[in-house]
Amino acid sequence: MTPLMATHTITLIPGDGIGPEVTNAVLRILAATGVSIEWERHDAGVTAFERTGHALPPPLIESIRRNKVALKGPVTTPIAEGFTSVNVGLRKALDLYANLRPVWNLPGVPSKFTGIDLVIVRENTEDLYAGLEHEVVPGVVESLKIITERASTRIAEFAFTHARRHGRKSVTAIHKANIMKLGDGLFLECVRTVARAFPDVRYDEKIVDAACMHLVMDPAKFDVLVMPNLYGDIVSDLCAGLVGGLGVVGAANLGTEIGVFEAVHGSAPDIAGKGLANPMALLLSSVMMLRHIDEGQAAERVMRALGRVLDQGLARTRDLGGTSSTLGFADAVCQAMPE
Ligand code: NAI
After folding, report:
1. Whole-model pTM?
2. Which of 22, 265, 323 to mutate for ligand 1's pocket (most ligand atoms within 8 Å of CB)?
3. How far apart (Å, rounded) are the C-alpha atoms in residues 215 and 297?
4. Does residue 236's CB lie within 6 angstroms of at least one atom of ligand 1?
5. Which residue, 109, 220, 240, 260, is most buried by CB atoms nearer than 10 A?
């Protein structure tokens, strides 16, 4: 008998450190949804480097290009001369220009604020992350901040399209154009141009330092935020902290055709191999992935199960004050899954 074909083929990068543990937990929950997925497993980071001499092996890149979707655990960038970040390398290789990070209060997760429901859209390919640095003379280093019209316009279009599609009311551009008049000035100019094509979405602007202050004072006021790479890196971790930390926020890196869904935390070497890691961040990323592959009903079932587990305190990992193991938490979510 010919085996049945899976409905979806997805590249899986278990990652380093706690990566394989949180990945196993998430696979267990995804299996309980009944969605038919064939996983193509590939290593990246230190594990891949030790095996193949490449931190980002070409077969991994080919697999993601073919499947167009990947679920990625955290990876450790090898500390050696000449290595740029594996994550930056992956985003560049696949032109994953938009980093999307929804941030909202989950039931039962302690946080200083309530009513937070915002989305960070971070430009992923340029700014100071272009990796252009050189020593001008001994003792003087120049790091180049690249801002282009093309990248700024497409991230603005992404942010406004996302806002319109998801019924969001406003987009705020975050910048420092008062100091970097040319670079951030160009970014702002591009966002303003795009904003004019979306009269149904309110548009405003905030200087990054003031935005940080408003975010930690009254985060519930914010909706969609769009910003260049470096501010996005910092502000998105700040916002994760507003709702309980890096362990409870998912993220996606998106290009025109490809989506790589990943947890925002790192490989946590201090707790790796102990069964203590919280798999929730990768689980939330996998929920974004399910919606992306048109498995919205499965995504809602996972969210209802997770909500029930958190709300009723059925299981909780140590970082959230509980005693559950990584897989114990996953089992609780599976048991809470509605029929
Ligand atoms: P980290 O996020 O790995 O750890 C920071 C702290 O948070 C640690 O105390 C850790 O135990 C805790 N933590 C992180 N995730 C957790 C989880 N799911 N459950 C419970 N506790 C958790 O950041 P760190 O230590 O700066 O980086 C470690 C490695 O991870 C580095 O090699 C770094 O390059 C890499 N990294 C990879 C990322 C990715 O692949 N997306 C993102 C950030 C860092």
Report:
1. 0.93
2. 265
3. 32
4. no
5. 260
